[in-house]
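REQUEST
  id: r-88c1
  op: predict_structure
  target: Hydrolase
  payload:
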Amino acid sequence: MEKEKYYVNLGTKEISKTKYHNNDTYVIYATPVEVEQLRSKFDHMDDAEYRTFLRAHVPIMPYHHDEGNDDYDRGITNAFQMLYELGDEQTKEHITNIGILRDNHL
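RESPONSE
  id: r-88c1
  status: 200
  body:
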């Protein structure tokens, strides 16, 4: 399968073939299967984010004992790793500069 260009906005979890407004935070080249894998990572982040929302309404449960939060952190790191692997040079440079993958091998 040939890789195609996609625009990704991690904040909105948008993956698009069409550049529109601010959806081009990251540019990647991916196959449809790779896009589906990235979408799955975003979906897992949404699930974890929802669990952290629920936990936030339980005052006796401390933040640092929140499995949903840990899952979200792992999910966003995995998403950044995939964005780095599929990204153009500007995307790779930006991810390197923000330092989110310091503990992982680029």
